[in-house]
Amino acid sequence: MPPRHAIKDADWERIKDHLPGQPGQHGKVAKNNRLFIDAVLWIAKTGAPWRDLPEYFGNWNSVWRRLDRWANKGVWQRVFAILQDPDLEWVILDSTVVRAHPHAAGAKKKADGSGSPADQALGRSRGGLTTKIHGAVSGLGLPVKVLLTPGQAADVSQAEELLEGLPTKVVIADKAYDSKALVDSIEARGAEAVIPSLSNRKRQREYDRERYKDRNLVERFWHKLKQYRRVATRYEKTAQNFLAFVHLASIMILLR
User: Fold this and answer.
1) 67, 121, 152, 171: which sits with the fewest CB atoms below 10 Å from its CB?
2) Same domain for 41 and 121
3) If DSSP codes are grouped into helix, strand and coil, which group holds residue 96?
């Protein structure tokens, strides 16, 4: 009997041919990709430590090393990109802060000396360690792009990167994105900026208030994303592997 969090047959059919280990590819043919995906989904959904992975899925360390390898090769991000709808009439920008478990600290430094908490998208405050997930969501409430920064990073700091390459006609965001440079950039792309002004601005910008109401779609996305406990709380020491879980959860949302 398959585990409760296993991927559904129809969803598996949509992604199976985009995973490593296909016939004709370099290296070994992967015969257990589906079991591996189910294992990572179990960890993502339950938030359990890797060592508690049920024996049904095989050796926990082998599963972790495979997730790490796929993250390093960009597999999770590639599958996420493949499932995207190219018709993006409008997008919504927002961010959410995720508290990091103390175990998330202490990633090994690289040979070049990099690997500080900031390099791993970890920020420190009186509340502890945090990571911020920045996202662009479509008009259907589906994820388009996700990025990580330390928790204290300003929302607007990642707006340009989120919008890079997106053929959108409308950009919706809250007051945290009220920046003349950003609004000018959006309009230079031929798009409309639906971003209210900060209350302390002498000249308030006009914006489409009815369209702005659709910003709730990104809040719904965050709610769905954080149903994956391994995303709602960060346990991964590296930003790369935490982003892998964010991409996996986003992939499952896209498959619904």
Assistant:
1) 152
2) no
3) strand
8 A C-beta contact, residue 34 and residue 7: yes
Q: Which pTM does this prediction carry?
A: 0.92
pLDDT tens track for 2-60: 567 899 999 999 999 999 977 656 555 567 899 999 999 999 999 999 999 999 999 99
Question: Do strands 143-150 and 192-194 pair parallel, antiparallel, or not at all (unpaired)?
Answer: unpaired
Contact 93, 162 (CB under 8 A): yes
Query: Which of 121, 89, 76, 33 has the alpha carbon at shortest distance from 254?
Result: 76
Residue 105 has φ and ψ, to the nearest 5°, of -85, 160
User: Residue 166's domain spans which residues?
Assistant: 90-235
Beta-strand pair 128-138/192-194:
unpaired
CATH of the domain at 141: 3.30.420
Residue 204 C-alpha from the chain's centroid: 33
Q: Parallel, antiparallel, or unpaired for β 123-125 and 233-234?
A: unpaired
Domain count across the chain: 2
